[in-house]
Sequence to fold (407 residues):
Amino acid sequence: MMRMRTAECGMRSAGKQTRRRGDAETRGTSRTAVVALLFLGAVVSLSGCSKAKQPPPRVVPVVAETADRKSVPLQIKAIGNVEAYNTVTIKSQVNGEISEVHFRDGQDVKQGKLLFKIDPRPFESALRQAESALARDRAQARNAQEESKRYAALAGKGFVSVQEYDRARTNADALDAVVKADEAAVENARLQLEYTSIKAPIDGQTGAITIQKGNVVKANDLPLVTINQITPIYVTFSVPEQDLANIKRYQTSGELHVEVNTPQGNKKPVKGTLTFIDNKVNTATGTIMLKATFPNQARALWPGQFVDVVLTLTTERNRVVVPTQAVQTGQQGQYVYVIKDDMTAELRIVTPGRLYGGWTVIDKGIAAGEKVVTDGQLRIIPGAKVEIKNAKQDEEKKPEAKTETKK
Fold:
């Protein structure tokens, strides 16, 4: 009996343990299933939310302009220096004291105007002496000529020897030579007297007077004043030697026009023509010197100024141009963003040419009439939707249509 109860108790305890393990396994399986269902529900709900809350494509605001066709001049730009058309440094040609000054500093003078007067009295005296010597020698020469004629008649009749006749004739010829020397001395004295009146050799504007009245000057010593001719006037500038062939080629078709802008920048460009090409290239700089002539009636140009020079070779018609700020540089080269009809941006590789004003000539890649982005390129990716900001501003700037009221 005792053994049977003990076996029965063991079987009961074994059954209880088996049921406990089963219940634990069932609870573990249930928890796993619940967690799996919760995770699946969360994924479904998140995917549903993401589909429901996905924002629409972003529209990028940009500024755009239309590619245009223009006549573009072919130009060469340089820095030039203004030079006087003619410069004369006035010096005295005789020694003496400056007795008169007939102009003031910076005055405009005409050719032939009296500028300085040097004391003429010593030169007048020298002229009178030369004239007196000439008169004396002329009288002696006339007497010698008459004596030579008489000796010639007597020698023909045999009353005097041939030697005496030759002596008389030689004396007459010598006195004639003395007369010619005296005439030259008189001319020189008269010229020296004329040099005491110093006159302007050209039209122009005087500079500062360096030697005033009362000072003694020497011949060809210190300058008295400098005169610059500024109407017309030169502008000298240099261009790279690579441009020389084009300059010579277009010059055969006619005059090449040159414009300069003064440093003030508040006046219209001064217009002139190319008049000189140097006969050699500067080997140190690889440039060639050119000169343009300007009428300069308004005196906008002044000797010594530095000016911006624009040399126009020709004008090319119907070139496609875009605003310069539309052209960007990337890894594939230079490009622009073109706005298509569906208001998306297309990246277009272009071949730009030269610059003119605020425009860039496009040799390849853009057609006239296409809209290109000029501001906002950094926010764009190819294919992005864009909105043209300045389109609304242009519409607002348009004048409203006026309606007429019929009476």
In short: Residues 1-11, 13-18, 39-53, 397-407 have pLDDT under 50 and may be disordered. The chain has five helices and 20 strands.
